[in-house]
Design goal:
binds molybdenum atom, Rossmann fold, alpha/beta, binds iron/sulfur cluster, Dimethylsulfoxide Reductase, domain 2, N-terminal domain of TfIIb
C-alpha cells in the first residue's frame, strides 16, 4: 500500500478508501477512491460536496495500465532509469557549459502537482540560472495573471465559489461553464432554483451555457473590451459608481473612464449587439449590488486578452464590487493546478511564490532562501516564443512535462518542426502521444491515482491528490525525477527531499519568507506540517499565515498588493483583435472544448462512454455559411488558414454566428485524420501576457465531395490510409472508425491495396470479402485464429446502407462460427451469436448513466414525460452531473413539436 493511503483523521470512516482531487478542471472537486474500485464524489469537499461531472464520474475507467508508458525510452528503445537520468543530466550540463543557461528550457503544465512545479522552477530559475521555464498556463491563464497583476499588484482571485451562489447577477464571459466547469455551473443553477439569480452569457456562440442564461449576448469575437468599456461609461453616466469606496481603495478611475468613452452607437457597432440588449445588460449590472463576473478562455485566449480582463475588473473596482459576499471579478482556471503553478512561479515572467523579476529585493530574497548560486535575474521566454527559439536553434535542450505541445500550441506543425530540429528533447508523460513521438528521451510518469501532492483550485483552495494504486512498471513521480536530475547536475543538497511533504514545506516557507503582509500568497502556516499532517491535510484556502488560519475573500476593504495598497483601474482603449477575416480568408475559426473530452484525449479518449456524446471533431457552422458552401450536416469540409489545412465533417449549428466556425481542440493525429485544431491556429500574442489568440484565426472553407462513407471496426488502433477522413472511437473490445472517401472506390488489384491501407491486416489473417460494384458496396472481414480482428463496411453515397454499429461491434474479438460468417458481410446482426436483438440506444446524451437519444425519445412518448426532471425520474439521465439537462430540454421540445 503506497504511503499516504491511510489517513489518521477519518481512517475509520473511510476504511480502504482514499480521498483525492479530480485531475481535470480547475473546479477542483474532491473524490473518494473506494476499495471496490469506484471513484465517487467526496461529500466533505467544499468545492463539490459530493457532485461530479461526466468526466469525473468516469475516472475509474481511465485507470487501465494497458497503454501506459512504463519504462524510460532512449531513442525509442527501453532503457533503465539510471541510464536515462544520467543522459538527461549530462546533456543539459553540456549544453549549458557550451552555450549558457538560456540555451536550455523546461515547458511544464498546470497538470503538474505543486511539488513537481516547485522542483522544476527551483532547478531552472535557481540553479541552472535561466528564466526559461514556462507552462501551458501561458495558453490558458496568462492574460488573467497579467490582468490581476496590473489591477491588484498580485495574481489573486479575490472571491470564492460561494459568491456565485450569493450573487443576484452572474455574468459569464467567454466561459462555457455548463461543459467546462460543470460542477460549479450546477452549483449556480441549484442556487438559482432556490431564489432568483440572473445569468448573462457573453459568447459569440450559443453554447449549452447560454441555454441556462436569461440573456445571451452573441458578441462579435474579440469585442469584449468594447462591451465592458461601454458598461463603465454607462455606470458613470448613470451615476452608479461607488465613489467613496474608490476614494479609499482604488486609483486610476479618470484615465480608465476616458479610455472607455464611446457612444452607444459605437458600442453596438463594435460588439455587433442589439442596442436594446446592451442596455438591458448594463441596467441589470448597474442596479444589482451583488454581481459576479466569471470569465475564462473567451477572454484570456485573445490578442487583447489582458485588456479584456482589466476592462471587466475596472467595472468591479468602480462599483466597489469586489471581495464582498456575492461580488467580484472571477477568473476560473482551467487545469487542476493552474493556480499552484502560478503560486510556485512556473510562468517564465514570475520568479517564485508570487515574487517578480521587476523587484530587485525579491530576486535577492529568493537567492538567499534557496542559497542559489546562479539565480535567474530576468524573465525567460514565454511558451510560443520558447518554441520559436527552439526552432531557430537558440534553445538546444528542452524538457517537456505533462503537456502535449505538438497538438496544443498554435501552429502545431511548426512546433513539431521545432521538436525535430532540437538537438535534445526530453518528454515526461504517462501515455504515448504526438509529443512523445518526437522525443529523444521519454520518461514514464506516475499519473493520477499514483501521484502524491497538492493542487490549488480556482477559489484558492489547496487540496491533496493522494495515491491509491501503484504506478505501472517503472513510472515515477515527476518531482522525484526532476530532483534526481538536479542532484546529478551537481546540486546535491538543494534537491535532496525524500517526500512530497518536504517539498511542500519548503514551498510554504518561501511564501512566508520576509513577507510580513506584503504578498497575499502566504501559506507559511503550512510550513511546519509533519508528514502525517500533510497526508491528512483537509482542503484549505490561502492565505494561511499561521497554523489554523484560513483565507477568505480578499480586497473587500482594499489592502491590494500594490505599493500604495490601492487597486488600479487600467485604461483599456479599444483595439481590434489581431485575428480577423480578409478577402483570402473570409471566415474566422474559434476553437474550444466539448463536454466529455479533456484536452488532447490522452485520458478521456480511452473511455468509450466519453466518446458516445460527441465522437468526432465536427466543425460547427451556421446554416447560412453551410448553404453558401453547399455543405449538408455530416458532409466533409476543408478548412484552411495561412498555417495549415484540414478536412473534418460539418455540423450545421444555428447557434453559430454567420462567418464563424467552431472546431473542438481535442482531436489529435492519434484519433483523427484531421489532427489537432492547433495546426490551423494563429499565434498572434497578447502584448502584455504573451498568451496566444487561440480563439480567432482567419480561415477559408470549401466543401469536399463525398463519394462513400464507411464504418471500420478493428481490434487495433490503426491509422487508416487513403481516405479523405477518418476518426477513431475506443470500444471496450477495440476501436470503431468513421470513414469518408472523396474518390470512387478503386477496382481490381488497386482495391486490395486500398483495403490493406485501411485495415493494416496482420500477416496470416483470413479475409472474407464482398464487393457489389452495382450498389457501390464493399464489405471485408478479417479473422485471426478464427476470431474477428476487423470488419470494414463501405457504401457509396450518403452511407444510408451502412448497418448500425453496435451489434457488429459486439462481435469484435469473438470467435466467428461458420454459420455466422455470412452475416459479417451482410452487415446484419447475426443470429445465434448473442448479438441479435442488440438495439441501438442512439447517440449517448447522458454520459454519466449512458442513456441514448433513442431511449430518451421513446420514454418521452411512452411515459408522456414533460420535463427534464421527469426524464431523470424515469431513466436517471441528467440526475448526476446535470450537464445534459439543456440537451434533454431540447429533445423534449423536439419530440413535443413533432408529436
Ligand atoms: N469538458 C472539458 N472541460 C474542461 C476542459 C476540457 O478540456 N474539457 N479543459 C479545462 C481547461 S484547461 C480550461 S482552460 C477550461 C476552459 O473553459 P472555457 O473557457 O469555458 O472553454 P472554451 O471552450 O475554451 O471557451 C469558452 C468559450 O469562449 C468563447 N469565445 C470565443 N471567442 C470569444 C470572444 O471573443 N469573446 C467571448 N466573450 N467569448 C468567446 C467560445 O465560443 C467558447 O464557448 O476548461 C476546463 N474544463
Ligand atoms: N486550439 C486550441 N488550442 C488550445 C486551447 C484551445 O482552446 N484551443 N486551449 C489551451 C489550453 S487552455 C490548455 S490548458 C492547453 C492544454 O493542452 P495540453 O497541456 O497539451 O493538453 P493535455 O492533453 O492535457 O496534455 C497533458 C499531458 O500530460 C500528461 N499527463 C497527465 N498527468 C501527468 C503527470 O502526472 N505527469 C506527466 N509527466 N504527464 C502527465 C497527459 O498524458 C497529456 O499528454 O491547450 C491549449 N491549446
Ligand atoms: S467539474 Fe468535473 S472535471 Fe471539473 S473537477 Fe469537478 S468532476 Fe472534475
Ligand atoms: Mo486551460
Amino acid at each position: 500500500m503506497p504511503e499516504g493511503m491511510a489517513r489518521d483523521a477519518e481512517a475509520g470512516a473511510l476504511a480502504g478508501a482514499v480521498r483525492s482531487t479530480c485531475p481535470y478542471c480547475g473546479v477542483g472537486c474532491g473524490v473518494v477512491a473506494q476499495a471496490d474500485g469506484r471513484v465517487v464524489g467526496d461529500t466533505d469537499h467544499p468545492a463539490n460536496r459530493g457532485r461530479l461531472c461526466s468526466k469525473g464520474s468516469a475516472l475509474a475507467e481511465t485507470l487501465k495500465d494497458g497503454e501506459r508508458l512504463t519504462r524510460p525510452l532512449i531513442d525509442g528503445r527501453a532503457a533503465d532509469w539510471t541510464q536515462a537520468l544520467d543522459l538527461v543530466a549530462r546533456r543539459f550540463k553540456a549544453t549549458i557549459a557550451e552555450h549558457g543557461p538560456d540555451s536550455v528550457a523546461f515547458y511544464v503544465s498546470g497538470q503538474c502537482l505543486t511539488e513537481d512545479y516547485y522542483v522544476a522552477n527551483k532547478l531552472m530559475k535557481g540553479f541552472i540560472g535561466s528564466g526559461n521555464i514556462d507552462t501551458n498556463s501561458r495558453l490558458c491563464m496568462a492574460s488573467s495573471v497579467a490582468g490581476h497583476n496590473r489591477a491588484f499588484g498580485a495574481d489573486v482571485v479575490p472571491g470564492t465559489y460561494e459568491d456565485l451562489e450569493l450573487a443576484d447577477l452572474v455574468v459569464l464571459v467567454g466561459s462555457n461553464s455548463a461543459w467546462c466547469h460543470p460542477v460549479l455551473h450546477q452549483r449556480l443553477l441549484a442556487a438559482r432554483a432556490k431564489r432568483p439569480i440572473r445569468i448573462v452569457a457573453i459568447d459569440p456562440r450559443r453554447t449549452a451555457t447560454c441555454e441556462d442564461a436569461d440573456l445571451h449576448l452573441a458578441v462579435r469575437p474579440g469585442a469584449d473590451v468594447a462591451l465592458f468599456n461601454g458598461l463603465l461609461a454607462h455606470l458613470a453616466d448613470q451615476d452608479q459608481l461607488d465613489h467613496a469606496w474608490m476614494a479609499a481603495h482604488a486609483e486610476g478611475f479618470e484615465a480608465a473612464l476616458s479610455a472607455a468613452r464611446q457612444t452607444a452607437g459605437q458600442t453596438a457597432a463594435l460588439t455587433g449587439l442589439d442596442p436594446a440588449d446592451l442596455v438591458r445588460f448594463y441596467q441589470w449590472f448597474a442596479s444589482t449590488p451583488r454581481v459576479v463576473t466569471v470569465y475564462s478562455q473567451g477572454v484570456n485566449q485573445s490578442s487583447v486578452g489582458t485588456d479584456k480582463v482589466n476592462a471587466i475588473i475596472n467595472c468591479h473596482l468602480a462599483t466597489g464590487r469586489i471581495g464582498k459576499p456575492g461580488c467580484g471579478p472571477f477568473s476560473i482556471t482551467g487545469q487542476p493546478n493552474a493556480m499552484g503553478g502560478r503560486e510556485v512561479g512556473g510562468l517564465a515572467n514570475q520568479l517564485a511564490a508570487h515574487m517578480r523579476f521587476d523587484q530587485p529585493e525579491a530576486i535577492d530574497r529568493v537567492r538567499r532562501f534557496w542559497r542559489a548560486p546562479n539565480l535567474a535575474t530576468k524573465p525567460g521566454l514565454k511558451a510560443v516564443e520558447m518554441f520559436d527559439a527552439v526552432l531557430d536553434g537558440r534553445i538546444k535542450a528542452l524538457w517537456i512535462i505533462a503537456t502535449n505541445p505538438a497538438d496544443s500550441l498554435p501552429r502545431a506543425d511548426r512546433v513539431r518542426e521545432a521538436l525535430r530540429a532540437c538537438p535534445f528533447v526530453v518528454v515526461s508523460d504517462c501515455w504515448p502521444n504526438d509529443t512523445t513521438a518526437l522525443a529523444d528521451v521519454v520518461l514514464p510518469a506516475a499519473g493520477w491515482g499514483e501521484r502524491d501532492g497538492t493542487v490549488t483550485n480556482s477559489e484558492r483552495v489547496i487540496s491533496r491528490q493522494r495515491p491509491f494504486r501503484a504506478a505501472p512498471g517503472e513510472a515515477r513521480a515527476d518531482w522525484r525525477v526532476l530532483a534526481a536530475v538536479g542532484q546529478r547536475m551537481g546540486w546535491k543538497d538543494a534537491f535532496s527531499w525524500t517526500s512530497p511533504a518536504a517539498v511542500f514545506r519548503e514551498h510554504a516557507a518561501l511564501s512566508g519568507f520576509e513577507n510580513a503582509g506584503s504578498r497575499p500568497f502566504d501559506i507559511s502556516g503550512l510550513a511546519m506540517l509533519t508528514d502525517g499532517q500533510y497526508d491528512a491535510l483537509a482542503p484549505v484556502r490561502w492565505p494561511v499565515r499561521w497554523a489554523g488560519d484560513e483565507g477568505g475573500r480578499l480586497f473587500g476593504q482594499g489592502g491590494f498588493a500594490t505599493p500604495n495598497g490601492r487597486g488600479r483601474l487600467v485604461p483599456t482603449p479599444w483595439r481590434p483583435p489581431a485575428g480577423r477575416a480578409d478577402d483570402a480568408y473570409p471566415l474566422v475559426l474559434n476553437t474550444g472544448r466539448i463536454r466529455d473530452q479533456w484536452h488532447t484525449m490522452t485520458r478521456t479518449g480511452r473511455v468509450p462512454r466519453l466518446l458516445a456524446h460527441t465522437g468526432e471533431p465536427r466543425a460547427a457552422l451556421s446554416p447560412t455559411d453551410a448553404a453558401s458552401l453547399g455543405v449538408a450536416d455530416g458532409d466533409l469540409v476543408r478548412i484552411e488558414s495561412v498555417h495549415a489545412g484540414t478536412v473534418v465533417r460539418a455540423t450545421i449549428d444555428a447557434g453559430q454566428r454567420v462567418g464563424e466556425l467552431f472546431l473542438p481542440m481535442h482531436w489529435t493525429d492519434e484519433f483523427c485524420s484531421a489532427g489537432p485544431a492547433g495546426r490551423l491556429v494563429n499565434a498572434a500574442l497578447d502584448p502584455v501576457s504573451g498568451q496566444p489568440e487561440l480563439k480567432l484565426t482567419a480561415v477559408r472553407a470549401a466543401a469536399v465531395p463525398v463519394a462513400w462513407r464507411g464504418l471500420l471496426l478493428h481490434r487495433a488502433a490503426v491509422r487508416p490510409q487513403g481516405v479523405a477522413y477518418w476518426s477513431r472511437m475506443p470500444l471496450n473490445n477495440g476501436h470503431a472508425f468513421e470513414l469518408v472517401g472523396s474518390d470512387a472506390l478503386p477496382a481490381g488489384p488497386a482495391l486490395t491495396r486500398f483495403v490493406e491501407g485501411l485495415l493494416h491486416p496482420p500477416a496470416g489473417a483470413e479475409w472474407l470479402q464482398l464487393t457489389d460494384a452495382g450498389r457501390g458496396l464493399l464489405r471485408v472481414a478479417i479473422l485471426v485464429d478464427g476470431r474477428l480482428e476487423a470488419c470494414l463496411l463501405l457504401a457509396a453515397g450518403d452511407g444510408a446502407q451502412l448497418p448500425p454499429r453496435d451489434a457488429l461491434a459486439a462481435l469484435l474479438g469473438d470467435t466467428v462460427t461458420d454459420e455466422a460468417r455470412p452475416s459479417l458481410l451482410s452487415g446484419r446482426a447475426p443470429g445465434g451469436l448473442g448479438a441479435a436483438g442488440v438495439k441501438s440506444a442512439g447517440r449517448t446524451v447522458c454520459a454519466c448513466f449512458s442513456v441514448g437519444l433513442v431511449t430518451i425519445r421513446e420514454a418521452i412518448v411512452a411515459n408522456r414525460l414533460t420535463s427534464a426532471e421527469d426524464i431523470g425520474a424515469c431513466l436517471k439521465a441528467g440526475t448526476n452531473c446535470g450537464s445534459c439537462i439543456p440537451e434533454l430540454k431540447e429533445i423534449l421540445r423536439d419530440v413535443h413539436a413533432s408529436a
